[in-house]
Amino acid sequence: MQSSKMGVVATLLVGLVSLTGSALAQTSPVQLTPLPSWAYPWVPDFKLPPDDGIPRRVPDSTVTHTVTQERDLFFAPVWHQADHPALPEVVARGRKPDVRACGSCHRAEGTGGPENASLAGLPAAYIIQQILDYKSGARKFSGPQRSPNVLMTAIAKGMNDAEIQEAAAYFSALKPKQNTTVIESDTVPKTFIVRVFVAKLPGNEAEALGRRIVEFPVDVDQFEHRDTRSKFTAYVPIGSIAKGEALVKTGAQGKTMACATCHGADLKGLGDIPSIAGRSPSYIVRQLYDLQQGTRAGALSAPMKLVVEKLTDQDMMSIASYLATQTP
Ligand code: HEC
Ligand code: HEC
Questions:
Q1: Can you give the pLDDT at residue 33?
Q2: How many other C-beta atoms lie within 10 A of the C-beta of residue 8?
Q3: What is the residue with the minimal CA distance to atom 41 of ligand 1?
Q4: Which of 7, 118, 255, 278 is geometrically suited to a Cys-Cys bond with 328, CB 3.0 to 4.6 A?
Q5: How much is the pLDDT for 155?
Q6: Quick one: pLDDT at residue 20?
Q7: Residue 189 to residues 209, 216, 324: CA-CA distances in angstroms?
Q8: Cα(17) to centroid(ligand 2), Å
């Protein structure tokens, strides 16, 4: 309640500023919406336990990898070879010193996780443009400068044209997977932050959900092994899905615009415009926020400006909740 009021007040203030002249409006920092801080879990000095040398496995695979391999950003674990084509070099190993293997963070099958982005099935031209936007600095990040994001920028800066083409061709040809179950609830299992993602605490303790989304892997070990078959649960406030659906489908009387116009009737993308269906709700909220704040201002970002301009953090959360229920 409090924060949505603040959003309305801030919208009015920005409206006033733009009346006073466009030069002033351009230099004034946008302060529309408070940072949805739940979407940016981050414990920079989180200590990972040392490698115990025991080979790790995941369900329905005979492959083993060591913890050291799994933590190596120049190595993408492949657990289910039959699920996807052979990985090109840039996805499997990258190139030292800067270009970490795309598959190590985004997973061999491009499924990604709440801490980064799913890439499977995104248009190749869109992927290429995003890498160029990270490279040029046009696409940055709000909130704490979390290490995977900082590395993504360094990786883009290090990539050559052939690597960009190769990675875009590989990920765009993959089929995206629905891996998130959305649950509307007043309460949520107790969780804690593991460096850059949220995990469920052992046991059955619950706490109030409040006005946030809590998204975590169903099996935290499988997730840490970077298994592309990992599943996620997202707890969202009661009523979020219906509110999100109204915003997405109708634009809610000019508050935003109907997403299907540009993202396609099924929201799975249209031409060079990316899919927004069935993707991590934490990721979606970070992007809506970045686009609103202008921290993400890439070559293709302009059409999104009117879409996000008047959204409160609660609206963003509702939109992301609804989108996560859609088939990717
Ligand atoms: C260290 C982890 C890490 C590695 C390795 C990595 N990325 Fe990323 N990537 C991220 C994060 C985190 C984001 C989300 C950043 C944001 O919020 O804008 C991201 C976002 C992206 C996006 C934007 C997706 C979208 O929907 O707009 C693309 C494209 C991308 N990465 C491509 C690549 C490619 C290609 C490689 C391999 C050369 C790669 N990444 C390697 C962490 C990583
Ligand atoms: C006028 C066309 C247009 C409309 C309407 C539109 N979008 Fe977009 N959207 C785009 C374009 C173009 C991009 C790529 C932006 C970029 O590259 O920075 C995009 C990107 C996005 C992204 C980032 C995706 C990613 O992979 O990082 C999200 C999230 C998004 N849109 C959500 C929405 C939602 C939700 C709606 C409806 C409420 C909507 N969009 C309506 C054109 C549109």
A1: 86
A2: 12
A3: 102
A4: 278
A5: 98
A6: 37
A7: 9, 10, 19
A8: 25
Tokens linked to 62: 């005979």
Burial degree of 16 (CB within 10 A; 0-12, 13-18, 19+): exposed
Instruction: Identify the pLDDT of residue 28.
Output: 45
Q: How far is the CA of 166 from the centre of ligand 1 (A)?
A: 14
- Give the ligand with the smallest distance to the CA of 318: 2
Structure tokens at 6: 């603040």
Reported as a single tens digit per residue, the pLDDT across 4-28 is: 433 333 333 333 333 333 333 444 4
Number of Cβ within a 10 Å radius of residue 98: 13
**Chain-centroid distance, C-alpha 204:** 28
The residue count of the chain comes to 328
The number of the ligand nearest the C-alpha atom of 162 reads 1
Closest ligand 1 atom to residue 287 Cα is 17
pLDDT, tens digit (0-9, with 9 covering 90-100), for 144-191: 999 999 999 999 999 999 999 999 999 999 999 999 999 999 999 999
Burial of 239 per CB tally in 10 Å (0-12, 13-18, 19+): exposed
* Vertex 43 angle, CA 117 and 68, to 5°: 70
Pairwise CA distance, residues 43 & 95, whole Å: 28
Tell me how far apart the alpha carbons of residues 11 and 31 are, in angstroms, rounded to a whole number.
8
Cβ–ligand 1 distance for 107 under 6 Å, the answer: no
Rounded to the nearest angstrom, the distance between the alpha carbon of 96 and the centre of ligand 2 is 33
Give the nearest ligand 1 atom to 99 CA.
38
State which of 111, 127, 131, 276 you would mutate to test the pocket of ligand 2, scoring each by most atoms of that ligand within 8 A of its C-beta. Answer: 276
**Residues lining ligand 2, CB < 6 A?**
247-248, 256-257, 259, 261-263, 273-274, 276, 284, 287-288, 296, 298, 300-301, 303-304, 307, 319
